[in-house]
Amino acid sequence: MSPEAVSSSPAMLVRLRPTSPWRLGPDCGSRDRVDPVCHSDTLYSAVCSAFEQLGLLPDWLQATAAGAGASEVRFSSCFPFVGETLFAIPPRHVWPPPATSKVRWKGARFVPLAAVERLVAGAALSEDNWVVDGASGCLLPVVPRGNLRGPFRTVTRPAAAVDRLSGGAIEPHATACLEFCEGAGLWLVVAFASEWAQERWLEPVQAAFRLLADSGIGGERSRGWGRSSSPEFEPGCLPGMILAPSFEPAPADETGVPGPQPETAWWLLSLFSPAESDQVDWQRGQYALAGREGRIESRARWGELKRPIRMVAEGSVLVAGVPPAGAARDVAPEGFPHPVYRAGFAVAIPIPYRGAA
Fold first, then answer.
1. What CA–CA distances, in Å, run from 29 to 24, 35, 160, 271, 328?
2. What pLDDT was estimated at residue 250?
3. Which of 33-47, 60-74, 200-214, 243-257 has the lowest mean pLDDT?
4. Which pLDDT does position 6 carry in this prediction?
5. Phi, psi of 321 (to 5 degrees)
């Protein structure tokens, strides 16, 4: 697929500035660990909960998970930001760069979008200009003056279950959470399938995020965790509002003949579950799989385990002739009174693919 064939689509960037700790459960389910990413399937479930309270859930499900066509709205996962710097999980085929004496590149899980743009264009990162923040796993620019600080820290807070009859603590425990520094938070992209879908769902989606800012996202919401100040919305188009990679041919060889123009691959900013119509070349690209589990929050029955599923992880690079679409899977246990959807819709950014680094 040529880069000229990649069309832009309406989108919205959302910034969430936490006002309390956030608890995002890790795959292992351990209380003393926390996931620094709010994954796209978790975000979709939270938005569904908000739409149920707003009385819009049936229409929302029909437009996304339960409809016959492609989803009208897709969410990326939530990644950290600090100031004006947006971080993301970098494309797997260009990260980490070759090892150097100063920077342990592979220690960074999150990379600024400006650095990603250089890497996918074939440029190198200078080891003198970057440092890895071990606490957050973010690659930070070196500044002449001032403090280098990542957007968040992982802390453990003690708590105890209290017997309602006696008032005594019966189950002391500690829970890990994310605490964000001033000027930092989480960002995500909302992608609309068309201008019509944007017109239909822009205001309802914004209302859902405002509700979630007050009620919280993730675990320990009964303690006030997972909340944020009023969300910030920035309209734009994909892929330009995230990345403007160069598809220029490789430099000329000794005979003066320029190298071939790279083909287009797709960098995932969301979890991805392939739809039947997706034509991904699984023998190429670079991707990883993530196991997803969890419990159901439903008025019908609360707390039952969802059926486990494996999904393609964020940062994966897929080779496909057309943009991957993805699908939602029903992960309700047998006999559950209604479907429970695990969203695997792709938010994928076109990037030049020159093979593995």
1. 10, 10, 18, 19, 23
2. 57
3. 243-257
4. 57
5. -70, -25
Beta strands in the chain (DSSP E): 9-16, 73-75, 79-82, 85-88, 111-112, 130-133, 138-141, 152-162, 169-180, 184-192, 232-238, 263-268, 289-292, 309-312, 317-318, 326-330, 341-345, 348-353
Token pair listed for 186: 């989480």
59: CB partners within 8 A, 6+ apart: none
Rg value, the chain, Cα:
21
Specify the long-range contacts of residues 118-126, CB closer than 8 Å, at least 24 apart.
119/90, 119/91, 119/94, 119/95, 120/91, 120/94, 120/243, 120/245, 120/246, 120/267, 120/351, 120/352, 121/245, 121/246, 121/248, 121/352, 122/246, 122/250, 122/352, 122/354, 124/97, 125/97
Residue 4 has pLDDT above 80, yes or no: no
The token pair at 2 is 């040529």
DSSP string covering 261-281 = PPEEEEEESS-B---TT--B-
Contact 15, 187 (CB under 8 A): yes
Q: Which amino acid is at 353?
A: Y
Token pair 């425990």: residue: 173
For range 170-178, the mean pLDDT = 82
Tell me: pLDDT of 328 over 90. yes
Distance CA 212, CA 217 (A): 6
- List, for residues 98-153, the tens digit of each pLDDT value: 988 899 999 999 999 999 999 998 899 999 999 999 999 999 999 875 567 899 99
Residue type, 49: S
C-alpha–C-alpha distance, residues 73 and 302, integer Å: 27
* Closest residue by Cα to residue 6 from 191, 197, 198, 239: 239
